[in-house]
Amino acid sequence: MAKWTAKHEAPEPLEGPVVATVTGGTILWFALFLVQLPFYGWFADRGQLWWVWTCAAGGFLGLIGIWYVRGRDAALKRHAAETAAQAEQPPQTPQP
């Protein structure tokens, strides 16, 4: 079997409002959980409690996701600032 090689370079990843997207998704999961709570007995009678707990798990995992993407965003901004600062400094010549 021959080794697979790419025929072209991979495109740059798309960057968007990642923090806002994850925060919105987390809010949506918690909202779905809260909407289903009044019907807890109905879900329990039909053996469908996993619907309720899936929404709760999505909300709590979303909190971890928010923490993660905020840290990632801060690290990307810090790296961009360091790169810009290094580009502004004139090159230093070694002293004999």
Query: H/E element string?
Result: HHH
Beta-strand residue fraction: under 5%
Please describe the biggest sheet, giving its number of strands, its sense, and whether it closes into a barrel.
Answer: none
What integer value in Å does the Rg equal? 24 Å
Overall geometry comes to elongated
Unreliable sequence segments: none
The assembly state of the depicted protein chains is single chain
What share of residues is helical? Answer: 55-70%
State the distance separating the first and last CA atoms. 58 Å
Class by alpha and beta content: mainly alpha
Count of extended strands: 0
Helix segment count? 3
Mean pLDDT: 91
What key attributes describe this structure?
3 helices, 96 residues, single chain, mainly alpha
Structural write-up:
- With 96 residues, the protein is mainly α.
- It is built from 3 helices and no strands.
- The protein is elongated.
Précis, in short:
With 96 residues, this protein is mostly helical. The chain has three helices and no strands.
Topology:
Layout (H helix, E strand, L loop, with lengths): L17 H19 L3 H6 L3 H40 L8
Helix pairs in contact: 1-3
